[in-house]
C-alpha cells in the first residue's frame, strides 16, 4: 500500500538519482514534478476504501520511472471505481486534443477557479501533467469487475 512515508522515500531516491546522474536541470524538475503529481494521484484518488484484499494483491498500485536513452517514461496504475472512469477518460481525451498553449490557458483558468475537493485536490493534477510532459498522455482502463477498473497511465518527458 502506498502511504506518505513510502512516497517520501520514493521522491528522495528519485531526487538523489537525478542529481547523481547529472540530469539536465529542466528535465530533472519535470521528472520530479510529474513524479509528485503521479504519486499524489495514486495516494489521494485511488478508490480503495472498499477493496477486498484479493483485488489489491492482483492489481497493486504501480509507479515506475524508466530512463530510455535521453527520455524518461513514468508508468502509473491504480484501482478506480467504475463511476469515475468516464470523468477521467473525458478529461484525458480533452487534454490530449489541446495544444500546449491551450493547456497553459486552461491551467491558468483552473488555478483561478480551483476549489479544494474532499480528497484534498483542486482538479489540477492531470492538467499539470499534460502541461509538463508536453506529450499526449497515454492511458488505459482494464475492467476488474462490475465495480472497479484498473487505470494505467504513461507519461513521457522528452529531452
Structure notes:
This protein has helices at residues 4-20, 25-45, 53-58, 82-97, 100-113, 125-133; strands at 62-68, 71-81, 138-143, 148-157. It starts with a helix and ends with a strand. It is built from six helices and four strands. The protein has 159 residues and is an alpha+beta fold. A hairpin with a 2-residue loop joins strand 1 (62-68) and strand 2. Helix content is 52%, strand content 21%. It has one domain. Helix 1 (4-20) packs antiparallel against helix 2 (25-45) and helix 2 (25-45) runs antiparallel to helix 6. The chain has a four-stranded antiparallel beta sheet.
List descriptors.
159 residues; alpha+beta; four-stranded antiparallel beta sheet; 6 helices; 21% strand
Spatial order of the strands in the main sheet? 1-2-4-3
Shape: globular
Number of domains: 1
- The tally of beta strands, per DSSP, is 4
What share of residues is helical? Answer: 40-55%
What's the helix count? 6
Cα-to-Cα separation, first versus last residue: 32 Å
Average pLDDT for all residues: 89
Q: What is the radius of gyration computed over CA atoms, rounded to a whole number of angstroms? A: 16 Å
**Class by helix and strand content?**
alpha+beta
Tell me about the biggest sheet? 4 strands, antiparallel
- Report the sheet-strand fraction: 15-25%
Taken in chain order, the helices and strands follow as HHHEEHHHEE
Provide the low-confidence segments as ranges: none
At a glance:
It contains six helices and four strands.
Write the layout of secondary structure elements.
Blueprint (H helix, E strand, L loop, with lengths): L3 H17 L4 H21 L7 H6 L3 E7 L2 E11 H16 L2 H14 L11 H9 L4 E6 L4 E10 L2
Antiparallel strand pairs: 1-2, 2-4, 3-4
Helix pairs in contact: 1-2, 2-6, 5-6
